[in-house]
Structure formats: C-alpha cells, structure tokens
Design brief:
Elements lengths: L1 H21 L4 E7 L7 H8 L2 H4 L2 E7 L2 H10 L5 E5 L1 H7 L6 E6 L7 E5 L16 E4 L5 H12 L8 E4 L5 H6 L5 E4 L3 H7 L3 E6 L3 H8 L6 E6 H6 L1 H20 L2 H7 L2 H4 L3 H10 L12 H14 L18 H21 L1
Parallel strand pairs: 1-2, 1-3, 6-7, 6-8
Antiparallel strand pairs: 3-10, 4-10, 5-8, 5-9
Length: about 350
C-alpha cells in the first residue's frame, strides 16, 4: 500500500514537473502606474486579457501616487516603463534629465470637461465669461490646470485673471456645491454625474474631438507609455513588444462595446458600479487613440498648455520637442501586422 502511494505521488510529481517545463519563459519587466485611471485603461485591459503573456512578458506593476512619482521612478531606473503624460518628459528635461521618451500614445484628447454651476447658466454662456471667477482643477501644475490655462488663453483671458483652487477629482462636486468654485475642469465620472443631476452644465466637452479642435486648436496628445532612451538603445525588442501589446489593446477597445470592455476588466478596476463604468467608457469613445500614433501637433498643444499655465517658465523653453517621442515602434508594429495579415490571406487562398 505504501509502495502504491509512493508511485501515485511520483506520478503526479512527474506530471507537474512536465507541465512546468512546458510553461513558456516570461521576461520580467517593471512598469510604474499611477493607479487604475481611465486614461491608462488600455494598459489594464492588456494585463487582464493576457496580452503581455502572449508577448512573453511578465509585468510587475509598481503603483505610485501620481504622474510625478511614476516619472521619477522611470528616471531613477527603478522601472523600465511608466504610464505617464508627455509633459513629464518636458519637466524632466528642464532638470537636465532629457532621456524620457513616449513610445506609444493612449489618449488623443484631454478627456476632461469644463463645467459650470447650473445656478449660473444665465450669467456664463462662454469661456470668456469666466474672467474674474473662481475655478477648480485637480491640482496646480496638473494636466487639468494646464488644459484650463489653454482654454482661458485661447478665449483671450489671462489665466492670472481667474482664481485657481486645488479641489481634487472626487472632491470637485462638493467644492462646486459649496460655491468654493463656480466651475472648472472635472474628470469622469464626476463631470457626467454633475450634469445628470442638474448641478452643472458643460461649457467645453474635451472628451470629444469637435470641442477639442474648437477650443484647443486640434488634438491633445498627452498620455501614453514612456521609457528611457537607454532602454530604446539597448533593448529595442522589449520596447517593440510593449508597443505591440498596447496597439493590440487599442484595437480591442475599438472593436468592442463599452459593456464588453467593462466585462473584460477585473472588479478592482471597474468598481462596484459596472453600469456607471460602462457609461464612462461610452462617454470616452473618442478619447482613446485609434492606432497609438503620436501626433506632433498634439504634443505641441500639450507644450503650449504647459507654457500658458506656468508649468514651464518662458526661460525653460524646449526647442526640440519631437526629441521626446518616437513613432518608430508603432509604425513597425503596424507594418508587421499588415505583413502577417497578407501572409495569412495568401495562405488561405
């Protein structure tokens, strides 16, 4: 009986060993993330769908508080990639650290909404009417502050002619309710909730290409995946894999409904209200990049907003902005996909 138990144990041990041997070797990489923000949902989707594993990668996600912290982790060689806005590459450059590069774009629009207290609907009908008012942003120097400054400047209002308050994102609604501010830049799902409840109205919907072009003069290419120039130089194959993964995620998003995307994500990302999350994604259907290509004009708009908001002082002018992003890997990914598709088509004929 003991011999039989030993044989059975040995049999299962051999099976387990064989299964482990058959598992593909996954290359570990470290990626810094500021959390499960809708801006970086394509990355979360890629993890959930196993796209990293398909490329032979095992991502270790380092969660940090905010974009500055994730960019600093990348600069300090603590991670290989970071989910960041390109403005952090510019901010690092003025600190004599000009080696951050965006390699794939995730968002082609700001993904924000300029809202105003409904009680002022008869008084404020245009951005120019905001002169002298108190407005809220998530924090000064943040993306919301930069976008607000551009909106004001393009409406011929000196950003110094309004009072800016740091009100956060989830705490934006109570700041509006308590009349600390008359309006400002709200993020989803808070902007939609305020409008649905009749507490605010939209002055500029920068989740849409139409309003982004109208008020900012074109696309606004802010958030994507950053890495360092040394990673590009020394590990181009790794960069290509990471870009391939995000191109695949963007394609998957384009081909599926907000509800299907919501269902594909784990509960820790979508939260307890899956209906609200799906509504948010529907609101952001123009927000995500279609192909990952970084538009120089979109980067210029981000740079302009940094200068306008004072995030970059005039003395810190960066002349060669195109140095901080590359479309090489995205274009190669697209080219390889076309070749594979043609080969598949020819083989099926």
């Amino acid at each position: 009986m003991k011999n039989l138990s030993f044989i059975i144990s040995l049999f299962f041990l051999l099976i387990s060993s064989n299964v482990l041997c058959q598992q593909p070797h996954l290359e570990k990489i470290k990626i810094a993330s500021g959390g499960h923000l809708v801006h970086f949902m394509p990355f979360d989707l890629a993890v959930a769908k196993g796209f990293f594993i398909d490329e032979g990668l095992d991502p270790e996600i380092i969660f940090l508080q905010g974009g500055t912290a994730t960019a600093q982790a990348l600069l300090a060689n603590q991670v290989d990639f970071s989910l960041n806005s390109i403005d952090h590459a510019f901010k690092a450059a003025i600190q004599r650290k000009d080696n951050l590069r965006m390699v794939v774009l995730l968002n082609k629009l700001p993904g924000m909404t300029l809202v105003v207290d409904s009680r002022l609907r008869n008084d404020i009908k245009d951005i120019s009417d905001l002169k002298g008012k108190s407005l809220g942003v998530t924090s000064k120097g943040s993306a919301t502050h930069m976008v607000l400054a551009s909106l004001l400047s393009n409406a011929n209002i000196n950003p110094a002619d309004v009072t800016i308050f740091d009100v956060g994102s989830s705490t934006f609604p109570p700041a509006l309710k308590n009349q600390q501010i008359v309006g400002g830049i709200a993020l989803e799902p808070f902007a939609s909730t305020l409008v649905e409840q009749g507490k605010a109205f939209i002055l500029a919907d920068l989740n849409t290409l139409r309003d982004t072009e109208r008020y900012l003069g074109g696309v606004y290419n802010q958030a994507g995946v950053l890495t360092r120039q040394d990673v590009i130089d020394n590990r181009p194959d790794l960069v290509q894999k990471v870009v391939n993964i995000h191109i695949r995620a963007l394609s998957w998003i384009r081909e599926h409904t907000p509800q299907e995307i919501t269902d594909a994500l784990p509960g820790k990302i979508v939260g307890s209200d899956k209906i609200r999350y799906a509504k948010t994604l529907d609101k952001l259907k123009e927000f995500y990049s279609l192909d990952g290509i970084i538009n120089p004009k979109g980067v210029e708009n981000v740079y302009h907003s940094m200068m306008t908001s004072g995030t970059l002082a005039n003395k810190n002018t960066i002349l060669n902005r195109e140095k901080f992003f590359t479309n090489y890997f995205v274009e190669k990914s697209q080219s390889d996909s076309i070749i594979k598709k043609n080969i598949s088509t020819n083989n099926n004929e």
